[in-house]
Design goal:
Elements (H helix, E strand, L loop, with lengths): L10 E2 L6 E6 L10 H9 L3 E6 L12 H18 L5 E3 L11 H14 L3 E4 L5 E3 L2 E2 L2 H16 L6 E5 L5 E4 L4 H9 L2 H7 L5 H11 L2 E3 L2 E11 L3
Parallel strand pairs: 1-9, 2-3, 2-5, 3-4, 5-8
Antiparallel strand pairs: 6-7, 8-11, 9-11, 10-11
Helix pairs in contact: 1-5, 2-5, 3-4, 5-7
Pfam families: PIG-L (PF02585)
GO molecular function, one term: hydrolase activity, acting on carbon-nitrogen (but not peptide) bonds, in linear amides
Protein name: GlcNAc-PI de-N-acetylase
């Protein structure tokens, strides 16, 4: 993750909330950047729920989707439990073919209306994570659908954030990096196929290091504020 802007400095992530909804397209997306913050929030008694557009059934090379989808759901539920999330929902949209359709926007808006979270955190939707690091089309399309769905809500949540580079807000996660590492490592089959040469725990540790930043001597998770209903 890019370092926070030292000239202006990001603000602390809001604390005055009770419930938060994480919206992402695939299993393991919550573990790439925000799991440490989720672990901190749930430890403080806040409620965090995950909703995923797909089951990631196209994500394991050499494994048929009918087997990969249920396996990735299991790994995601284990990963979520490690950071204190019990409620994980899969919507069944096709992995690798997610687009910002009326159907997807309607589903997102319906879930936001049903859950009524104070905060929504979505997948990063920028074109690149950094120079030479392009984002996935599923991520970009899904993130745009979340923003459009938020705008459709007559009574929207108080804040809409995306996790990722260029943060406007940060959460100190110094004490939760190990939990975040364990959470990502719960995607054991996925990671072992993704990089057979590197132990799963080592892959997870590298990702947590890469997707957090140092701010005032502490490791932080970064979030970009997109919408606010707070006056």
């Amino acid at each position: 993750m890019a370092e926070p802007d030292a000239s202006t400095g990001p603000q602390p992530f809001p604390q005055d909330w009770v419930s938060l909804l994480v919206l992402v397209p695939h299993p393991d997306d919550p573990e790439y950047g925000i799991a440490a913050a989720v672990a901190k929030w749930t430890a403080a008694g806040k409620t965090v729920r995950y909703a995923l557009a797909s089951s990631g059934e196209a994500g394991i090379a050499g494994m048929e989707p009918e087997r990969a989808g249920p396996l990735r759901e299991q790994e995601q539920r284990r990963a979520a439990a490690i950071v204190g999330v019990a409620d994980v929902d899969f919507w069944g949209f096709p992995d690798s073919s997610i687009t910002n359709t009326p159907e997807l926007r309607a589903k997102i808006a319906a879930v936001i209306g049903e859950v009524r979270p104070d905060v929504v955190v979505a997948i990063y939707g920028g074109a690149e994570f950094g120079s030479g690091m392009p984002n996935q089309r599923d991520h970009i399309e899904f993130a745009a659908a979340v923003t459009d769905a938020w705008d459709m809500c007559g009574d929207p949540p108080r804040w809409l954030f995306q996790g990722g580079p260029g943060p406007t807000h940060v959460e100190d996660v110094q004490d939760y990096l190990e939990l975040a590492t364990r959470s990502l490592a719960a995607h054991e089959v996925y990671l072992s196929v993704l990089d057979p040469a590197t132990p799963v725990d080592e892959q997870a540790r590298r990702v947590v290091e890469m997707t957090t930043a140092t701010h005032r001597g502490r490791r932080v998770a970064g979030f970009r504020l997109l919408r606010s209903a707070v006056a």
